[in-house]
Design brief:
The structure is a single chain. The chain is of the alpha+beta class. 45% of the residues lie in helices and 14% in strands. The radius of gyration is 18 Å and the shape is globular. Strands 2-1-3-4 form a 4-stranded antiparallel sheet.
Length: 229
């Protein structure tokens, strides 16, 4: 019988020999993090602290939300990040449901990959699109791999909605709109990380993650042309 949860674990061996492990426990059905929330949430996680301009959540009213879901879920990542500088070399092993992936990369690449997984499964409404990609997480994905995965996820979503009788648009205008929303989230998240981090690794990791969103609109047509054989 299929499990109702799965774990993706990053095990990082630092240059000084110390090992840092960050695990993400994810609900199989909702593809949302099930890992325990921090006992105490720092000020930078408050919803009103550099809240995204496009945030649909509110800190008041019947459905009040006190903290940013992304920021709260990134709290456990900050401590390991504060031990690292962006360009530090890290040996990392990523254990997913079906495989283990090993790599020797810069710290910012490891954190960026892990950060992307956490953000996608955090419960942020603007990140719901990325849940299927998190379910089949690919660490250290290249731009081309990310383009293939995001366009495939978008088109599959269109097909599933169409099967339910909903109107869909198979052009990629909708995908561009999703990434426009993500850019706004990343901008506000960067302000939060500046208040939280003691080194540059977390902020530079987010910059790497955001770069894909910035480049995607320009790279998409070239990517599609390459597949139009």
């Amino acid at each position: 019988m299929a499990s109702d949860q799965f774990e993706i674990r990053y095990r990082m061996t630092l240059s000084d020999g110390n090992v840092e492990t960050v695990g993400t426990l994810i609900d199989t059905q909702t593809v949302q993090l099930k890992s325990p929330l921090p006992e105490a949430c720092p000020d930078w996680t408050s919803l009103d602290f550099h809240q995204c301009e496009n945030c649909p959540l509110s800190s008041s009213g019947d459905d009040a939300t006190s903290h940013c879901p992304v920021a709260v879920r990134l709290v456990p990542l900050i401590a390991p990040c504060n031990k690292l500088i962006s360009y530090d070399q890290v040996s990392v092993e990523v254990e997913t449901i079906n495989r283990r992936i090993s790599a020797d990369v810069k710290a910012e690449q490891v954190i960026s990959s892990l950060m992307g997984l956490i953000i996608a499964t955090s419960g942020c409404p603007h990140m719901a699109f990325f849940k299927p990609m998190a379910r089949y997480h690919l660490p250290f994905a290249t731009l081309e791999e990310t383009l293939f995965r995001s366009t495939g996820t978008y088109l599959l979503g269109c097909y599933l909605r169409q099967r339910k009788g909903e109107a869909v648009d198979y052009s990629f205008d909708g995908l561009m709109e999703i990434y426009d929303e993500v850019k706004q989230v990343n901008s506000s998240l960067a302000a939060r990380l500046r208040a939280a981090a003691e080194t540059d690794s977390a902020l530079n990791a987010l910059t790497l993650l955001d770069a894909y969103g910035q480049v995607l609109p320009f790279a998409l047509q070239r990517f599609l042309d390459e597949f139009d054989l």
